[in-house]
Every structure is written in C-alpha cells, then in structure tokens.
Amino acid sequence: MRKYISKTKTWILAGAIALTGAFTVSLTDDFFEISRNMDIFATMFRELNIYYVDETKPGDLMKKGIDAMLESLDPYTNYIPESEVEDYRFMTTGQYGGIGALIGQKGDHVVITDPYEGFPAQKADLRAGDVIIEIDGKPIKGKKYDEISKILKGQPKTPVKLLVQRDGEKEPIEKIILRDEIKINAVPYFGMLDDETGYIRLTGFTDNAGGEVKNALLELKT
After folding, report:
1. Contact between 203 and 188 (Cβ < 8 Å)
2. How confident is the model at residue 128 (pLDDT cuts 50, 70, 90)?
3. Same domain assignment for residues 67 and 136
C-alpha cells in the first residue's frame, strides 16, 4: 500500500512539472508574438502618420484599427473610448458625471430644457430656456445637442464654464459649474391609475432596474 501511494504521488508531481513546463513555453511564445507584432504595428503607425502623402488623423486611424480588430472576434467585445465612458456608465447603471440637466435643440441653438432638482445645474441657477453660447470659452454655434451633451459630461468634481443667453437679460450670463455624480432612477414614477390598475414607468434597463421595479410593485400592493 505504501509503495502504491508513493508511485501515485510521483506521477502527479511529474504531471505537474510537465504541465508547468508546457504552460511556460506557451506563455513565452505568446509574449514574444505579442511583443513582435506590437513593434510592427507601432513602426507602421508612426511611419504612416509621418510620411503619408495627405494629412492623417492619428486618433481616427487608431480607432478604426481597434474597431476592425475587435470586429473580427465577436459582436460583444467592444472598445469604449474615454469620451464615451460616461454614456456607457449611464446606459448600464443610470449614473454619469455631468451637470444634471436635459438639453435640447431649438432651431440653431442648444438650450437647457430641464435642470434636475438638487443637481449642479439647478444649484448654479441654470434655467429652462437658457441658450448655451459657449462652453469653456469655445463657441458652440453649429453643433448639435448630442455633441454638446458629450462635452458637458465628464468626471465628477471637474469644472465646466458655460456662457448662456437668457430671455430678459441684455448680456450673456457666465456660469462655472462643478460636475457631480448624476443618478437617474430607472423607475422615475409609479402609482395607481384606479382601484385595480397600477402604473410603473420603466425608462431603462440598468443594473438596479429589477430592484426598482420590485420595490415599486411592493409599494403599489400595500
């Protein structure tokens, strides 16, 4: 019995050594392949941007390269650039960093349509109907509201300076607003329509949407 156990232990140990050795070789090969191809890509990218006959946009080229690479894998692996991180967070969690106000298009102008109660825009006295003229000293004429929305979003505790035109005011008004964490509930409203019919408004499928619907349903049952 003792001899059998010893042989078994030896076999397991040898197997572990063989597997470890094979894994190390495979890992080394992968690192070499990655390093070699990164060098090729970096060299090609640098030469292309320096010597191409027309002016290139390095950021656009890199984004297209990344998108094409991920597209070859599957539909679910995506690259989210820094400029779209807040949009992604809002889609998945209902939270984003921003000033806390809805904006919209009114002719050629982008206007504040609804400052959320208790958030930075409302605290800075931005009002519905205020026309945004400049952001951080840059005119926004000709830009669409979705472009402006991305500019207004950003990391909490970072400032943004707005110049707005308000009805009844001769001169534009300058506002320096500190962005904050904005949390929008997936269930902004629920209530009873009559004695037998309840209404739950669901505006998005965030991480907490299920819990919010459950809580609303329990409230309606009481």
Report:
1. yes
2. very high
3. no
